[in-house]
Amino acid sequence: MRKVLSIIIVVICLILLVFSYMQWKEKINSAKGMESSSLKVEAGAKSDSSDEDDDVKPDADVERLLSLTSNQDEIVSSVFQSRLEADEVVDFLIVGSDVMEFGEPGYAERLEIALLEAYGDSVNVSTVAIEGASNSFVAEMDELIDFNVGYDVVLFEPLTLNSNGVVVVETQLEHIETFIDRVKDEVEDAVVVLHPPQPLHQAIHYPLQVESVKRFAEANEISYINHWTEWPDKDSDDLPNFLDEDSMPNSDGAEIWANTLITYFIAE
Question: For a tag on the chain, would you pick the N or C end, based on fewer CB atoms within 10 A?
Fold first, then answer.
């Protein structure tokens, strides 16, 4: 009887030992699993953080881009600064008469190339060439321009030459205001920069219209790039050398025009 009881006690002890060992092993494995999971989460977090850091431009690169805006009016450079410091793309629109396409290439294409070379993927450039006068433009502008893009900076040649003899100056100025308001409907702090069409040789009334737009811009604190100062005087016999037979800019004329714009938007 004692032998049987001893055997039973031994068996029970063995069972308890085996059970205790299995519990201990399970706890060890569970602890290892938690540690491994923690390491994976930490590694994943570091990887995600690294990916985010890769997407953000280094401070030195942002400073370099900001330095390119030093020739701009403060109201324009502030928009560039806001987008660049937030690591956002500057949506840039070039809109005006189809004279922008003359010059092989025209001033618009030359400016676009320069902007992309200088600002890289920090700027997105669109161009819209208009054939009509300012009255038809404002009537159809929502069909001609995708305002949903939300343009930050708009370079606008306000169709002064196209409107010559079609729209009186006072009405043309109202059309400029209408266009600016439409741009700001989409982006509140958007800025519109005006510049005139090409000069014409020995023109009389047209320069007065251009001057009216310039004074309007100054009175309303609208940025204005006067590239006429870089061309030969309108009464100079040298001016036709920069225009084709239809008084459109040739390659030399487009270069003068574009270089003035490039100097404004891209400081060396």
Answer: N
